[in-house]
Amino acid sequence: MIIISGQTLRPQDIANWQTEESLLPYLNELIASPVQFDYGSIAELMFEVQLRRNIVQAAKELSGSGAKFATFAKTYGNTAFWRVTPEGALELKYRIPASKAIRDIIENGAFYAFECATAIVVIYYLAVLKTVGNERFDSRFKNIILYDWHYEHLPIYTETGHHFLLGDCLYFKNPDFNPQKAQWRGENVIVLGKDQYFAHGLGILTAEQIIQKLNSLRKKDAVQSAYLLSQATRLDAPALYQIMH
């Protein structure tokens, strides 16, 4: 459900909009969703639609980049752009354009390895860059730290529910994970549509394939299967729109 300045947007209301065809699945999905999304203007709504499309594209690009999965302790990146902190975060070097550093992760993925939560932050930044362009991105983001999205300064929120949308970040929990491989206690993923999810370190898989993979990484005599949590993590697009404009 889409609310713009207090008014519900109906499918017939967008019939005459000059909307890019690639954006229509995202726009229609928001209209049909039982989750309510509130916007102050049509411009805010279209910013969200473009952002979601770009999140999906960014996830696919990261999947094909060659960037590897690593625990925080074993994180590494291209030292021309990033330094690795003691916590395992990638910190943008001084005076490096953020847009160039973020794009380098896709263009030179073999120089990078990081955790799945870090991968979500990379995807979000790349999607924002695609949405707003180099100049606004570099002006707004001068001190990027790529780490767990729980500590990120982008407007990110998580809410409970069973209805998921293209570009959402979901979490597959593995309660009986092997303590020797604690990094597989769960997996953050991006919804790509048609039961396809990008899971950093695993690839683009179906929900069942992700669960099977996590189940293969459980402790001895494990009894509880991995499962998808009923929650979604999202970029707050209206808040981000206000930040970027």
From TrEMBL:
EC category name: transferase
Reactions catalysed according to its record: L-glutaminyl-[protein] + L-lysyl-[protein] = [protein]-L-lysyl-N(6)-5-L-glutamyl-[protein] + NH4(+)
InterPro entries given in the database record: Gln_gamma-glutamylTfrase_bac
EC number of the protein: 2.3.2.13
Short name of any one Pfam family annotated for the protein: TGL
GO BP annotation list: sporulation resulting in formation of a cellular spore
Claim: ATP-binding is one of the keywords in the record: no
GO molecular function annotation: protein-glutamine gamma-glutamyltransferase activity
Magnesium is among the record's keywords: no
Alphabetized UniProt keyword annotations: Acyltransferase, Sporulation, Transferase
Role, per record: Probably plays a role in the assembly of the spore coat proteins by catalyzing epsilon-(gamma-glutamyl)lysine cross-links.
UniProt record similarity statement: Belongs to the bacillus TGase family.
Protein name: Protein-glutamine gamma-glutamyltransferase
Organism: Bacillus nakamurai
Designated gene of the protein: tgl
